[in-house]
Write a structure and sequence with these properties.
The chain has eight helices and ten strands. It is an alpha/beta fold.
């Protein structure tokens, strides 16, 4: 059973088909890199998988939820974690309150929120500051912590290294490796191909809203990717 299965999926951005008959299967525990030019449909694909965009036509199943049905799209959101361009954080709440809120929304205990913040380097006084007072890089770390705290079964990462320093970028890489080792499925869209390929042995190229190439890393590359 695929974690993600799309058949002839069409999704619109206004009147433009951001996905134009896309087919895709992603297996449980797999890590997949989405690559392609800007406007290829990568972000739209991730948002469809997150239950945030409805299909115009075609079929999509995510974690056994029928994504053509609105109640099923809402239900799947508890089981996926999306790191995208928007932070989904509340500026007036502290880093701790934001992370705890998103953990509880997924039915996860508060300890997971605390562990995620520490993992992302948001502890001490930073933990109790309003998010609106944090730097852009610190906000990005809180956004990632909020996703990690949810313990998602499906990780959807849209340029996850953006806005992070070297330490933060390395931490994200390790989090993804840990997630896949624990059985989670990961789909990451990135222009940083060398770094992303170290996390995701399978590469899918998207162009014009369709999959135009689907390749797995060579065995020696997979060996490098699995080094933790």
């Amino acid at each position: 059973m695929s974690v993600v299965r799309l058949r002839n999926a069409v999704a619109l951005a206004g009147r433009f088909p951001a996905l134009a008959g896309l087919d895709l299967d992603v297996a449980p525990g797999e890590a997949v890199l989405l690559q392609g030019p800007n406007g290829a449909g990568k972000t739209t694909l991730l948002r469809v998988c997150a239950g945030l965009i409805a299909l115009h036509s075609g079929q999509a199943t995510v974690l056994e939820h029928d994504m053509t049905r609105a109640p099923q799209r809402r239900a799947v959101r508890r089981r996926v974690g999306l790191i995208g361009h928007a932070s989904f954080l509340y500026d007036e709440l502290t880093a701790w309150e934001n992370t705890r809120f998103w953990a509880r929304a997924a039915g996860v205990d508060d300890d997971s929120a605390q562990t995620a913040l520490v993992r992302m380097g948001i502890d001490g006084r930073l933990r109790d500051l309003p998010v609106g007072s944090l730097s852009a890089g610190q906000k990005r770390r809180v956004s990632i912590a909020a996703v990690v705290a949810r313990r998602p079964q499906l990780w959807l990462l849209d340029e996850p290294h953006a806005g992070l320093d070297q330490d933060g970028r390395d931490t994200v890489d390790q989090l993804v490796r840990d997630a896949t080792l624990a059985g989670a499925t990961v789909i990451v869209a990135s222009h940083e191909l060398e770094r992303a390929r170290a996390m995701a042995p399978r590469s899918i190229t998207v162009a014009g809203g369709m999959v135009v190439a689907d390749t797995a890393a060579a065995p020696e590359e997979q060996g490098v990717a699995n080094v933790g």
